[in-house]
Amino acid sequence: YARAIALLETQFGRTHVDVATSISRLAIAKFYGGDKDTEQIKELIFEAKDIIGRRFTVLSPLYAELLKDLSTFFISQNQLEDALSFLDQSQQIWENKAGRRNNIKAADIHILRGDVFYRQSKYDEAESQYRASQKLNEKFFNDKHPEYVKATARLSKLYYTDGDYKNAKAYIEEVINNYRNFIKEYFPALSEREKTKYWNTIRGDFDFYNTMALN
């Protein structure tokens, strides 16, 4: 990514959209790769956000996606009010583009807003957000879609934290069964790298399932 950014800057200048996209991807790669330099990650995302804002408008879908990336980062840093602010801005852009009723992008925002409320111990509000995400993903896809399953996993953890072990068990078992079916059906066609990447995205839910079972 760093080499790609340098090349794009040479050819197009620092306001080209591909530069911003590359910077954003670099920041996300660092974030999910466990890079400890959180200040650099934040600077990279803000730099990409500023480029998009200058090159296009602050109402573009690219800008909305960068706002969502920023909210994800701020949630990880427990800066929850900032995260909510970015989510609100991102949601407003998507509503202007797609409306309120047929906006699948809102599903991601609901999950992230639910994560904020969960961290704030506002469990009723978090549950409402996760269920809103489920509803949208079921409407546009089905109840086996990865994003629907993600929201279901979040609900299980919420119920467990809130002491509702019956629902926690039911929801995490639904999640695990979905993962097992996916592995059975699709894993044979995946490369080793793709298998590893997928496992890394779901292993936390298996760990939670095992921890809950032991407890």
> Pairing-aware structural class of the strands and helices?
mainly alpha
Determine the strand fraction and express it as a percent band. Answer: under 5%
Number of β-strand runs = 0
- Sheet with the most strands? none
Write down the secondary-structure element order.
Answer: HHHHHHHHHH
The portion of residues assigned to helices is: over 70%
Measure the end-to-end span: 43 Å
Low-confidence segments: 5-15
**Oligomer status:** single chain
Mean pLDDT: 87
What is the 3D form?
Answer: globular
Radius of gyration: 19 Å
Number of DSSP helices?
10
Molecular structure report:
It is a single chain. By secondary structure, this protein is an all-alpha fold. It has ten helices and no strands. It has helices spanning 2-12, 17-32, 38-55, 61-76, 80-98, 105-119, 123-140, 146-161, 165-186, 192-214. α1 packs antiparallel against α2 and α8 (146-161) packs antiparallel against α9. The radius of gyration is 19 Å and the shape is globular. It starts with a helix and ends with a helix. The relative contact order is 0.06.
Provide keyphrases for this structure:
215 residues, mainly alpha, globular
Topology diagram in text:
Blueprint: H1 2-12, H2 17-32, H3 38-55, H4 61-76, H5 80-98, H6 105-119, H7 123-140, H8 146-161, H9 165-186, H10 192-214
Helix pairs in contact: 1-2, 2-3, 3-4, 4-5, 4-6, 5-6, 6-7, 6-8, 7-8, 8-9, 9-10
